[in-house]
């Protein structure tokens, strides 16, 4: 009988316990908690009050986060949309127009100008599309939403640090719904890690200052292992009967797993050449001392690429085969034929 009473009592208490467990503070309460945490981290109350003075819950940010499009695409459909001919033409002109600055940045950081322009073009259409959402509002909203609270709280406190350092005024501190900012679309933590002062004025203005934009892109790639003596990779042809087990596995557990797969499957160009891998015109691979992994962004019947070490740097920027392929493809179109 005692056990029965206990079970009945537990049954009645579970809904109450459940409601307590899922009870969520209001957005306003959540902001107050964030402000207190920011002050505990050493930010002054005055600074914190100013930073959060206009903060609003952005329903569209949550909607965008939860409803990102999912659809089947192949490189054959993706590349023409991502890198149309007009963008190639504009990129080659942008390369020419900015060449003195690009050369200066390139010499300092060791990154070829064509890759700087390619990332600039693909991230924000040469700085034209940067996003207009207030960064503090966006990352606070997404932290409150809770799906990726830890990640977006990190972005929030990084955002406060960017404001504190004075790189941008708060009314100009805008970006995408996910907190990607400026002409190179760095999230706040990436800004703190990679943004660079390209013109020596003491600020890292990736929103308006082209020297800072180019330097930040180059600094990111260099910090992630870029070698300007190499390119990114190349599309190749496979012989009939090629052993597809030699292809790098597509699936991996995070970046570390991807890098392990790369290392496990890479071979020298001489070895790939002996296995019958050829350039797209059917000729032998270059006789240079390089290693590369063989991968296909789609499936074994799709396009095949030899990925060099610089491919890893681009995959750190955005771990998407399609994105990296588009960056490399556009960079190649910028560089060849040589811009006059």
Q: Unreliable runs, pLDDT <50, ≥5 residues?
A: 1-8, 14-20
Strand fraction:
5-15%
Structural class, from secondary structure content? alpha+beta
Shape: globular
- Largest sheet entry: 5 strands, antiparallel
What is the assembly state of the chains in this entry?
A: single chain
Question: How would you characterize this protein structure?
Answer:
It is a single chain. Helices cover 54% and strands 6% of the residues. With 340 residues, the chain is an alpha+beta fold. It has a domain of 75 residues. The chain has a five-stranded antiparallel β-sheet with strand order 4-6-7-3-5. Strands 1-2 form a two-stranded antiparallel ribbon. Helix 6 crosses helix 8 and helix 10 packs across helix 11. It starts with a helix and ends in a 5-residue tail after the last helix.
Brief synopsis:
The chain has 340 residues and is α+β, with helices and mostly antiparallel strands.
Keyword list:
16 helices, disordered N terminus, 7 strands, 340 residues, two-stranded antiparallel ribbon, globular, alpha+beta, 5-stranded antiparallel sheet
Write the layout of secondary structure elements.
Blueprint: H1 2-22, H2 27-40, H3 45-51, H4 59-66, H5 75-82, H6 85-97, H7 99-109, H8 113-124, E1 133-134, H9 135-145, H10 149-165, E2 174-175, H11 188-194, H12 210-223, E3 233-237, H13 254-265, E4 267-268, H14 269-274, E5 278-279, E6 291-295, E7 304-307, H15 309-317, H16 321-335
Antiparallel strand pairs: 1-2, 3-5, 3-7, 4-6, 6-7
Helix pairs in contact: 4-9, 6-8, 6-16, 7-12, 8-12, 8-16, 9-10, 10-11
